[in-house]
Design goal:
This protein has about 160 residues and is mostly beta strands. It has 2 domains: about 70 residues, Elongation Factor Tu (Ef-tu), domain 3 (Beta Barrel), CATH 2.40.30; about 60 residues, Roll (SH3 type barrels). It is built from 2 helices and 12 strands; from the N terminus they run E-E-E-E-E-H-E-H-E-E-E-E-E-E. The strands form 2 sheets. A 6-stranded antiparallel beta sheet has the order 1-2-5-4-3-6. A 6-stranded mixed beta sheet has the order 10-9-8-7-12-11, with no helix packed on it. A hairpin with a 4-residue loop joins strand 8 and strand 9.
Length: about 160
């Protein structure tokens, strides 16, 4: 959750799933508590939501920074060549030459692309999720194959 919006408990989110999945009546979990979406308003890349039992600005402010969780069954498919972040966390990252780099521990967005945070043997590696680098994502095999470009691994 990005922060409160207004004084009636509404707040702003930047959805990591398809925006159309957020609709009145949808059950979500926020900070360990299940809520129901009461209303949704689109605001550019963000959405403004109102949940039951979050009734004022102070309640919404207290939830800033929390992830709004939706049941996987309510997400629907991510789309062709698209993945939900939770699907990527835990995948092994290997190079096109077969070298094991490590495991994806997080995914975050930048202005232009996502970045995979990879726990490697000697620390953390940031892998840009761009076509020149990411060659294949195989959820069934549990791996992401990357092409190492100059400077990517700090060499």
């Amino acid at each position: 959750m990005l922060g409160p919006w207004g004084v009636r408990g509404d707040f702003k989110i930047e959805p990591l799933a398809d925006r159309d999945r957020f609709r009145p009546g949808l059950a979500v979990t926020l900070a360990g508590t299940t809520h129901t979406v009461e209303r949704v308003n689109a605001a550019s890349r963000q959405l403004r939501l109102k949940l039951n039992n979050v009734d004022d600005r102070d309640a919404a402010t207290a939830l800033r920074g929390e992830y709004l969780l939706v049941a996987e069954a309510d997400l629907g498919p991510a789309g062709e060549d698209r993945y939900y972040r939770f699907q990527l966390v835990g995948l092994r990252v290997v190079t096109t030459t077969g070298e094991d780099i490590g495991e994806i521990t997080d995914v975050f967005a930048t202005g232009s692309n996502d970045v995979f945070v990879v726990k490697a043997e000697d620390g953390e590696v940031l892998i840009p999720a761009v076509d020149d680098v990411v060659q294949e994502i195989d959820l069934e095999a549990g791996k992401v194959t990357i092409e190492v470009i100059p400077g990517l691994l700090g060499d």
